[in-house]
From TrEMBL:
Tagged with keyword S-adenosyl-L-methionine: yes
Keyword line: Methyltransferase, S-adenosyl-L-methionine, Transferase
Name recorded for this polypeptide: SAM-dependent methyltransferase
Gene Ontology biological process: methylation
Keyword match Transferase: yes
PROSITE patterns in UniProt: TSAA_2 (PS51668)
Signal peptide (from-to): none
Lineage: Bacteria, Bacillati, Bacillota, Clostridia, Lachnospirales
Pfam families assigned to the protein according to its UniProt record, in alphabetical order: TrmO_N
Length: 158
């Protein structure tokens, strides 16, 4: 088995002014050409769940109402995983190209959470026209835009 070395490119900042991605200074130049994109795919580290014992958990009791009684880690989007990686689509509100600061609408990362990579969201690569999901989650929103209005507390068992 190989080991990989990953460098964070920035961190999430959450404060009274909103939610931001603050890039490390050496990565600010990597923002060039981002103009015109409305969304990003952000790869980040579930740092609050990066504990060796959590990396050994491969199934979880029913995390969602109506889901199977036990689910494998790879069938959830939860933070407890063999490698605590998160992939999230975020809406760009504003980019400060000089400071390397991207204001985003929202994600469930905490203040100080490491950001590993950022990619522009492009429908040709990231959108699936007719995705299929299990019956137990078929009434969940079908888009990023409508998920903000959805009562997520009604589907989670935690």
């Amino acid at each position: 088995m190989s080991n990989f070395q990953v460098q964070q490119v920035g961190v999430f900042q959450v404060n009274e002014e909103g939610m931001f991605i603050q890039l490390e200074p050496q990565y600010i130049l990597a923002l060039q050409g981002l103009d015109g994109f409305s969304h990003l795919s952000v790869l980040w580290w579930f740092s609050d769940f990066d504990q060796e014992e959590m990396r050994q958990i491969y199934e979880t009791p029913q995390p969602y109402k109506g889901a199977p009684e036990v689910m494998g880690t790879f069938a959830t989007r939860g933070p407890i995983r063999p490698n605590p990686l998160a992939l999230t689509t975020v809406q760009i509100i504003y980019v400060d190209y000089e400071k390397g600061l991207i204001q985003i609408a929202y994600t469930d990362a905490n203040d100080g959470t490491p950001v590993l990579d950022i990619k522009p969201y492009t429908p040709s690569n990231d959108r699936v026209e007719n995705p299929e999901v299990p019956k137990w989650c078929s009434d969940w929103p079908m888009s990023y835009e409508t998920s903000g209005e959805f009562d997520w507390e009604s589907v989670f068992n935690f």
